[in-house]
Design a protein that fits this description.
Blueprint lengths: L2 H19 L8 H22 L20 E2 L2 E2 H23 L7
Antiparallel strand pairs: 1-2
Helix pairs in contact: 1-3, 2-3
């Protein structure tokens, strides 16, 4: 599998788990999209910092052009945004799922 395939699979799995396993339906909630819109600029800044080429011609993270789609946003491949979306959806989904079941830290 190439990086693009993994990123698309991560999004699909995160969406399916949210809808059918956790049954949260976060994607239908305004609160999720507001949260995502707050997180996204920070993800773009971090991705830019990690992937833009410096004066020495190197970046902290470099991608093989044969494994990515090629579209870049803030110097990072589009796939990074897909992985970030899947991570955010999964994390918020787990938070909601565990919260409904009363998982709490006992003091």
């Amino acid at each position: 599998m190439i990086y693009s395939d993994l990123a698309i699979a991560a999004v699909l799995i995160a969406v399916m788990v949210d809808l059918f396993v956790f049954k949260n339906s976060l994607l239908t909630r305004v609160a999720f999209w507001i949260s995502y819109s707050i997180i996204l600029p920070f993800q773009l800044i971090t991705n830019w910092w990690l992937t833009h080429y410096r004066a020495d011609g190197q970046a902290i993270v470099m991608y093989d052009p044969n494994t990515i789609i090629g579209t870049r946003i803030a110097a990072a491949p589009l796939e990074d945004l897909l992985f970030g979306f899947a991570l955010i959806l999964s994390t918020m989904g787990l938070w909601e799922f565990w919260g409904r079941r009363g998982f709490q830290r006992n003091k």
